[in-house]
Design goal:
2 domains; Alpha-Beta Plaits; 309 residues; Ribosomal Protein S5, domain 2; 4-stranded antiparallel sheet; 5-stranded antiparallel sheet; alpha+beta
Length: 309
């Protein structure tokens, strides 16, 4: 038995900013996916996933029924029969491993669920986001609900603000273009919850709050608009500024051995790096106007191209 596939996602812009109402842009990344499954002879991974699902099922049975109602008995029965989440999505890498699981559970067990086929009004999107936020909080302590939303709909999502989100189209990729967005594998597993608490702690300082508003959110919003308009020149100029702001103000979220690499990109203009998800490890997101140059500069690292300009 294997359920429908749910894909990983990449938040191109908006990490941390969306907690404070910046714009954001999230796209599905079909390279990785996951599905609910039951096997006769489960692997160690499957057994681990099944144990986690047992705890998740208990958590979901206590979720406010005004928000969402699940077929809890059916879910518990399936989990007792060894159901697990079979996933190629790396955990702790900022590409939405728990988001895909949440989407899969909602899809299979929610009653009166909102489906992809209906007219997705803003109200319905916000309702889905609220449900997913509550579900995913089990894994992260605090979740925006965007990762599962992206995985569930398998559409690019534009976040205008907390209460204003919409499914959107993104410019068609250029197969012959030299520019690219890529993932750089840090080789370290990142934990979301500690990174979010560092951020929340920093938010208590007035200087950090001001920087967030006057620099981080300003450049993030500009990047989202540039990307959607296809204004590549302006996009790279704003991405460079954003990369600089992150290096100067989000150092704990960047693994130590990548500080120099980050700086090198800003100095040579071969590539610009930014956080992919909460940081602390996992993938780092890169933007380059010349992928060959970036590959040369980063030849000791594994790069995966996710979008071509």
């Amino acid at each position: 038995m294997k359920g429908p596939l749910f894909y990983s996602k990449i938040l191109l812009f908006g990490e941390y900013g969306i907690i404070k109402d910046s714009k954001g842009l999230s796209i599905p990344y079909n390279f990785y996916n996951g599905a609910l499954k039951t096997d006769k002879n489960p692997s160690d991974e499957a057994i681990k996933s099944n144990i986690s699902l047992q705890k998740f099922a208990t958590y979901l049975s206590k979720v406010n029924e005004d928000l969402v109602v699940f077929e809890i008995e059916k879910l518990k029965e399936d989990v007792d029969n060894g159901m697990y989440f079979d996933s190629s999505i790396p955990q702790g890498y900022g590409v939405g491993s728990s988001g895909a699981l949440v989407a899969a559970i909602y899809d299979k067990y929610a009653l009166n669920k909102i489906t992809v086929l209906e007219n997705l009004t803003r109200e319905k999107l916000l309702q889905l986001k609220a449900i997913f936020s509550k579900m995913e909080s089990f894994f992260h302590g605090k979740s925006s609900g965007l990762d599962p939303l992206n995985s569930y709909l398998s559409l690019p999502i534009l976040i205008n603000s907390k209460d204003n989100i919409e499914a959107t189209g993104i410019p068609t990729q250029s197969t012959s273009g030299k520019g690219a967005v890529f993932l750089l594998d840090s080789g370290i597993i990142g934990e979301t919850a500690p990174m979010v608490s560092i951020f929340m702690e920093s938010m208590k300082q007035e200087g950090f709050r001001n920087m967030l508003k006057s620099q981080f959110i300003k450049h993030t919003d500009a990047c989202v608009e540039d990307f959607l308009k296809g204004d590549i020149k302006s996009l790279f100029s704003n991405t460079k500024q954003l990369s600089k702001v992150v290096l100067n103000n989000f150092k704990p979220m960047i693994p130590l051995q990548f500080h120099e690499l980050w700086k090198n990109g800003l100095e040579t203009n071969d590539y610009y790096l930014k956080l992919c998800g909460s940081g602390g490890g996992g993938y780092i997101l890169g933007f380059t106007q010349d992928i060959k140059k970036a590959q040369q500069s980063l030849k000791d690292y594994k790069l995966e191209v996710v979008y071509n300009f």
